[in-house]
Amino acid sequence: MIGAAEERDEWFCAERAAQELCRSGGFVRALKVMEPFAAVGWNPALWAKADILLRAGRTDEALDLVRPDEEGRCSQYVCRDFAELLVRAGRVDEAIELLVPHLPGWWIRSVLVEITEGQGRDERVLELIAPHAEAARRALGKDRRDFSDEGALVLQAQMLERMGRADEAIRVLGADIAAERYGTQNTLTAYAELLARHGRLDDLRELATGQHAHTVLGIFAGALRDRGRAGEAETVMREAIAADDWVGYRAWLSSVLLQDGRLDDAITVAEPGFSWYDCSNLLAPLVYPLFDRPEELLYLLDHPLTVPHHGHEEFQRWWRAFALARLGRAEEAIAVVETPPGPVDRPPHRQSRPPQYRRPPCSRCR
């Protein structure tokens, strides 16, 4: 690949070759591969070359190559990229000051918090975030629909937690939740996860059993599992399903049962929703973890409880072909792909449960 990159004028080959050369310390050859593209002033190549120079310890050359001009400093995207490079070069204060003019943009505030983690500048970052959080509180206090700056509330709590002031973060963000100074579930989810990380299970339980249950109950159950209370977490979710058969509860429980190796139980929990119009929330979370376990994936797809879905039958064909190919049954996989699907009627809202289905023995047991 490296030899081909040096001989051919192909960007993707050159990009990959340069990455591999840098991993082995071959910075001179990496620059040689990248130079034809950088020489014409193509922006992706200039940034790739700057990355190579920085890795090679040639910091000033790297920064000078892509340093933004006045026009570039007006672009949030250019400043984001250059600030990340500055942090990698150890020039954290320069990176912060570069981003300051753009902090009215909510996503740049997130960039600032992200790139300064572990850089010893938390006080400065919190100082910059706090005014935006206060502005968001005032706006949300007047009109809950004005949540354009709501993310600043979560970033402020994130910074307080990062600085070892978790109790203060919980108090401040909790007051916003109690006063309903938020407009999206993101803030509620962030508060619930903050409670979970710091073991405030009583507060989290109270939050999860009220009007916010759909958003928070999975976080509460996950916190129980993290503390070795998996049985209690399963009971909590099964009781929620019995009281309110919401798709999110079934998706959460079926996924964790699969993590615990209980495939049959996971199918039983999820199958009432397999035939719903939007089946992806229940079937896909079971399928994707099984891509590395093709026998079990086929078992899931062949299970009597896994019925065809209105508008989704093509996914089963793709998944089945993938599983067969992973098992070395290439001809069968090709036949599945090449066979056009037949008409599938939309099944009723819920399927009747067929007799107990026994799993066939795996290849090691046959």
Characterization of the model:
With 366 residues, the protein is mainly α. The protein has helices at 2-7, 11-23, 27-38, 43-55, 59-66, 70-73, 76-88, 92-99, 106-115, 122-142, 151-162, 166-178, 185-197, 201-208, 213-226, 230-243, 247-259, 263-270, 280-287, 294-302, 313-326, 330-338. It has 3 domains: 1-66; 68-198, Serine Threonine Protein Phosphatase 5, Tetratricopeptide repeat (Alpha Horseshoe), CATH 1.25.40; 245-366. It has 22 helices and no strands. Helix 2 (11-23) runs parallel beside helix 4. The protein starts with a helix and ends in a 28-residue tail after the last helix. Residues 344-366 have low confidence and may be disordered.
How is this fold's topology laid out?
Blueprint: H1 2-7, H2 11-23, H3 27-38, H4 43-55, H5 59-66, H6 70-73, H7 76-88, H8 92-99, H9 106-115, H10 122-142, H11 151-162, H12 166-178, H13 185-197, H14 201-208, H15 213-226, H16 230-243, H17 247-259, H18 263-270, H19 280-287, H20 294-302, H21 313-326, H22 330-338
Helix pairs in contact: 2-3, 2-4, 3-4, 4-5, 7-8, 9-11, 10-11, 11-12, 12-13, 13-15, 14-15, 15-16, 16-17, 17-18, 17-19, 20-21, 21-22
Order of helices and strands: HHHHHHHHHHHHHHHHHHHHHH
> In percent, how helical is the residue content?
55-70%
Mean pLDDT over all positions: 85
What shape does the CA trace take?
flat
Distance between the termini: 43 Å
Largest sheet: none
Cα gyration radius (Å): 27 Å
CATH topology of the largest domain: Serine Threonine Protein Phosphatase 5, Tetratricopeptide repeat
SSE-based structural type: mainly alpha
Low-confidence stretches: 344-366
CATH architecture of the largest domain: Alpha Horseshoe
Number of helices: 22
Q: Work out the count of structural domains.
A: 3
- The top-level CATH class of the largest domain is Mainly Alpha
Number of DSSP strand runs:
0
Strand content: under 5%
